Amino acid sequence: MKDDVRMDQGLAAVVAGILGLGGGVAGAVFGGTWGARIAGRKAVEAALAQVGSQAAVEHTRWVKEHRQQACVRLLEAYAAADDALRRASIEIRQERGFPDAVRDEARGHAHVMGSICGELALWRPEALAQCGRALHVATMDSIGLLAEAVAPSAEGTLQERLERWREADQRAALAHAAFVDYAGSVLRNPQQQL
């Protein structure tokens, strides 16, 4: 009977060894699967975070480009309107009147400025849009006073009317300088607001 017990103990040791080996293999497989699942989840989370961050950087760059383009177009429209006013002032001083084509050209450029100011309001900051609107309003005032200078019903001498226009033109020049200064500070700032 002792031999039967020893054999049973030997058989039990073999069975325990096999079960231990099976448990070890199952634990390794389960642990590896669980670890792979966690690693996969973390990899997906990291990829999503990177894509989100990259999208935010790309959006910021896109907004900055559109802001810069709007500022450049506003300055170009102002320069074109100002050029038309300069040509008209020469005609007026030589008592040839304010040519309709030049007046319409200046007004057309001023209207473009108004549209661009709307874009600037979208691209922010609001102070930039306000500077653009101030430049637009000053340009429209300048155009209006130059047109008024040649109106038959205008008060005062031609020189007095032209002086009022020069004052409005000076206000437009100051608004232009303020816009250039502020837009430059916004566009040069690498941390510019969105």
What does this 3D model show about the protein?
With 194 residues, the protein is an all-alpha fold. It has a domain at 57-188. It contains four helices and no strands. Helix 2 (100-123) runs antiparallel to helix 3. The longest helix has 92 residues, at 2-93. The N and C termini lie far apart (90 Å). The mean pLDDT is 87.
Q: What are the key terms here?
A:
Secreted protein, single chain, 4 helices
Layout of helices and strands:
Layout: H1 2-93, H2 100-123, H3 126-149, H4 158-188
Helix pairs in contact: 1-2, 1-3, 1-4, 2-3, 3-4
Form type: rod-shaped
Rg, nearest Å:
39 Å
Measured by DSSP, the beta-strand proportion falls in under 5%
Low-confidence parts: none
- Counting helices, strands and paired strands, the structural category is mainly alpha
Mean pLDDT, to the nearest integer, reads 87
What's the number of helices? Answer: 4
Distance between the termini: 90 Å
What letter string, H or E per element, gives the SSE order?
A: HHHH
Main β-sheet: number of strands, strand sense, barrel status? none
- Give the helix level as a range of percent: over 70%
Protein name: Secreted protein
Organism: Streptomyces polyasparticus
